[in-house]
Amino acid sequence: QVQLVESGGGLVQAGGSLRLSCAVSGTVFRSDVMGWYRQAPGKQREWVALFSSGGTINYADSVAGRFTISRENANNAVNLQMNSLKPEDTAVYYCYVRRIRSGETYWGQGTQVTVSS
After folding, report:
1. Any bridge partners for residue 112, and if so which?
2. Torsions phi, psi for 34 (to 5 deg)
3. Which is the most buried residue in 11, 19, 66, 93, by most CB within 10 A?
4. Residue 1: which residues within 8 A CB-CB, separation 6 or more?
5. What is d(CA 63, CA 83) in angstroms, rounded to the nearest whole number?
6. Contact 20, 48 (CB under 8 A)
7. Residue 117: band (very low, low, confident or very high) from pLDDT cuts 50, 70, 90
8. How far apart (Å, rounded) are the C-alpha atoms in residues 14 and 5?
9. Left, alpha or beta for 54 (phi > 0: left; psi -120 to 50: alpha)?
10. Any alpha helices (H) in the chain, and if so which ranges?
11. For the chain, what percentages of helix, strand and coil (3-state, to nearest 5) are there?
C-alpha cells in the first residue's frame, strides 16, 4: 500500500514563494512516475508537473519557468518549489504516484495553496 502526505501549503502574497513536499510511504519503484496536480474551486483537476523514472521532467505551460519539481529517491519524496506565485495558482495541490507496471495511481489528501493579490 502506498500512502502520500503533502505539506507546505499556505497563504502567500502574489509574487511570493512556497515549497510543497510530499512524503511517500510504502514501496516506490524507480519506474514509478511522481508528480503534482491541482484543483481550483469550480474547476477540473489540472496536471502541474511530473518527474519520470528516467529523469524526464515536464511542466504545464501555466507553471513552466516558475515551478520546479524535484524527486528524492532515497526518501521517497517529491517536492514542488513554487516561485512568482499568482492568484490563479490558488488551488488544492495533490501529489501522486503512478505505477507504470500496474497502471495504478495513488493520491495524497491535498494541501491548500492560496495566493492573494
Report:
1. 92
2. -125, 145
3. 93
4. 26
5. 9
6. no
7. very high
8. 26
9. alpha
10. none
11. 5, 55, 45
Torsion of CA 102, 103, 107, 113, to 10 degrees: 140
Grid cell for residue 48? 502541474
Instruction: Decide: 82 and 20 in contact? Cβ < 8 Å.
Output: yes
pLDDT of residue 84: 98
**What distance in Å separates the CA atoms of residue 63 and residue 32, rounded to the nearest whole number?**
22
Size of the chain, expressed as the number of residues it contains: 117
What would the pLDDT profile of 50-102 be if each residue is shown by its tens digit?
998 788 999 999 999 999 999 887 778 999 999 999 999 999 999 999 998 89
Largest CA distance in the chain: 43
The phi, psi pair for 41, rounded to 5°, reads -55, 130
